[in-house]
Task: inverse folding
């Protein structure tokens, strides 16, 4: 008869379990850090897209304002020297406005901004613009000091301001200066 003796297993200290738990914890932390970075990159790309769309819409409104100046000149503007506005067409600020702490029209909420006719779809709000007459200025350096003065020396100057906001997050304001004919 063959009798086998069964021996009791040696006591295990559980070191393998502790190593596996620590490795699992490290892998979880690495996964969370990676996920956090991915979410940040996604937000950054969404903001970049919003800003790009707002910029393109504002630039389209700016070009529309410039085209209106080149096509109509001062037609529709208020009387020179009044400092007032007629819709989104404004005269240059008066000396009294400047001395009283003039707030640029671009900084006024809603005042004098007119909607542009460009189609931006449903991604951004309708871009707006306004045009300011800035007075006459020399077309080339020191032409206003020539005697006799050349007929095309002084030309009207305009400032076109345009703005657009994409998804209530990115806001873009653009300005350009333009010499009329």
Result:
């Amino acid at each position: 008869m063959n009798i086998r003796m069964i021996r009791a297993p040696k006591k295990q200290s559980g070191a393998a379990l502790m190593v596996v738990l620590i490795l699992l914890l490290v892998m979880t932390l690495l996964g969370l850090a990676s996920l956090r970075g991915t979410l940040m990159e996604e937000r950054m790309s969404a903001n970049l897209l919003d800003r790009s769309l707002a910029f393109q819409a504002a630039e389209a409104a700016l070009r529309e304002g410039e085209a209106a100046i080149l096509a109509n000149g001062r037609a529709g503007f208020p009387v020179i020297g009044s400092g007032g506005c007629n819709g989104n067409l404004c005269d240059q600020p008066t000396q009294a406005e400047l001395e009283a702490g003039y707030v640029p029209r671009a900084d006024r909420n809603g005042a004098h901004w007119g909607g542009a006719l460009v189609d931006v779809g449903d991604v951004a709000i309708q871009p707006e613009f306004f045009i300011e007459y800035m007075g006459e200025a020399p077309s080339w350096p020191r032409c206003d000091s020539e005697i006799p003065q050349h007929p095309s020396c002084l030309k009207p100057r305009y400032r076109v301001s345009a703005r657009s906001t994409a998804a209530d997050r990115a806001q873009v304001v653009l300005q350009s200066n333009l010499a009329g004919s």
Summary: Residues 51-179 form one domain.
